[in-house]
Amino acid sequence: MFGYVLPDKPNLYMKDYALFRAYYCGLCHATKGESGQLARFSVNYDATFLSLFFHGLHGVKAEVKNKRCILNPKKRPVIAATPLMKRIARLDLILLGMKLEDDKEDGESSPFRRMAFSRQVKKARRKEAELAALADACREAQSKEEKKGVSLDGAAEPFAVMMKELFRALAEEKTTAEIERIGYLLGKYVYYMDALDDYDEDAKKTRFNAFRRTFGAKDYAELIAAHEEDIRFIMEEIVRGIEEAYKTVDLGENDGVVTNTLWYGLRLRLEAVLKKEKGKCIKIRL
Fold first, then answer.
1. Do the Cβ atoms of 37 and 64 come closer than 8 Å?
2. Quick check: 6 and 269 in contact, CB under 8 A?
3. Are the beta carbons of 17 and 52 closer than 8 angstroms?
4. Where are the domains positioned within the chain?
5. Contact of 131 with 94, CB cutoff 8 Å
6. What is the assigned CATH class of domain 9-274?
7. What pLDDT, in 10s, does the model give residues 13-61?
8. Closest residue by Cα to residue 146 from 110, 194, 93, 111
9. What radius of gyration, in Å, describes the C-alpha atoms of the chain?
10. Which ranges of the chain have pLDDT less than 50?
């Protein structure tokens, strides 16, 4: 369920773009320090967003260092690892493990990929038992809901609740009802985007899909032709809810990137999914 929460690059100020890249590289280096070189392949833009959000929320002053990367020998600005960044790196691996288990149940995950990340995921789960428990509870609840054949709201609820609790756990004493609501609604957004993105594949393999269960379209083209307005309304209500809750949050110097992501990035990715013609929505590199 990765790849849906990222900035709208053309509308980023250069300083915010540089900050996002520095946080991404910092998370990558932190992941290497926590779990080794291979684990760096788990780093994604969604986790970078979490790092920006919660470092800003806690008022952690970014320490920038120039470091080289195995993929880029030229030195570039990197946010130095903090305890919070290391925690998010471990959370990223826990969520990767959750996704690999879901793929295994769907008959998609390669056993070699699961084996490759097995040690790193187990290590992250040991260090972050609370976050791992939230992921396990989500998977169990998700399985029960899907077996009942529920429609949109019921199907998205377990993932939305997990994200709400993850935001609460990472915010610690800074948590508020608005911050937890952002987590909850982002969970719904990601779940729905993943369901839209996987619609044709789920239909082909007769797997549960919340939009297919609700609207019954035989394929994605038919779904969009008949129900694009309904889907836009559902997703726009979620994004507006996130924007409203975010108005009360102060993230300091990280506000620019996070605002861009929540105001523009979420809608940009929705458009990419709605307008796709074949396969997955277009992958974006920043």
1. no
2. yes
3. no
4. 9-274
5. yes
6. mainly alpha
7. 999 999 999 999 999 989 988 888 888 888 899 999 999 999 999 999 8
8. 194
9. 18
10. 278-279
- Go through the chain and tell me how many residues it has: 286
Residues with Cβ within 8 Å of residue 79, at least 6 apart in sequence = 22, 23, 25, 26, 27, 51, 62, 63, 64, 65, 85
